[in-house]
Amino acid sequence: LEDQLVQSQKMQAIGQLAAGVAHDFNNLLTAIRLNTDELLQRHPVGDPSYPELQNINTTGARAAALVKKLLTFSRKATRRMERLDVTDTLSDMVVTLRQTLGERAQLKMIHARGLPPVNADKSQIDTVLMNLCVNARDAMEDQGGGTITIQSSLLPRTAITDVHLLEALKPIPGDDFVVISVADTGTGMPDEVKSKIFEPFFTTKEQGKGTGLGLATVYGIVQQSGGHLTVDSVVGKGTTFRIYLPAAGAAPEVSELPVVKTPPPPR
Ligand code: ADP
């Protein structure tokens, strides 16, 4: 539990740092891009300076996209919370996932029927799923592929026997959890890797392949959704990520929240 606390404080600090840096960076980028826009008008296509100016502008756009990623992680991104049917959300992603994962990663979906809805942002859940599945595929690559199983289920609090899990879910209100798990038959992770995977920029992938932001983003999104994330991994057998989201009660439907800074998640 102490480890968890240290970890969550660490993530919070990194999140704040990322948000601060991203914010300042964004202002600087805006200034650069406004100036190059201005210059591009004075030196349009055909002008000898045009290619370089255009290059500055597109590089600026790429930097802005990276900053946006950082903001997602640091909880300052805009969200659209709604009552989501997890089964529908997962089913909607199947085609995109299959396309992204390629043929060597078999995708299996197992859904519980009649799950209660959860309060979450659909595109964020899509991001979570995509990040977890891409990692799963990468972890199976050396062995020429394998199976990714995405499963949704209902877990009443009273049915939890694992004391660590019970303790971790204690601060989250409600009686029931909707669990989304993503399991792969890949390499698995040794403990020294597992302990660092949620840190931003931690990656074991070769340069250019990994950013180390995938799981940090997943962690941030699950926190923002008021949920909990666990990972089980056995070297040589595979890895399972589980997301516990509080089942939404009979509250009235929230379709669109004003786009303002989101409050920090409960800790
Ligand atoms: P990236 O994918 O860019 O490396 P992530 O934050 O998504 O960044 O993942 C960090 C690291 O966690 C990966 O480099 C890998 O070592 C490890 N990892 C993540 N998912 C899995 C998995 N399903 N199986 C084995 N290792 C994983």
From TrEMBL:
Which domain of life, per UniProt? Bacteria
Q: Where is the Histidine kinase domain?
A: 20-249
The protein here is known as histidine kinase
Species name for this entry? Litorimonas cladophorae
Q: What range of the full-length protein does this chain span?
A: 435 to 701 of 831
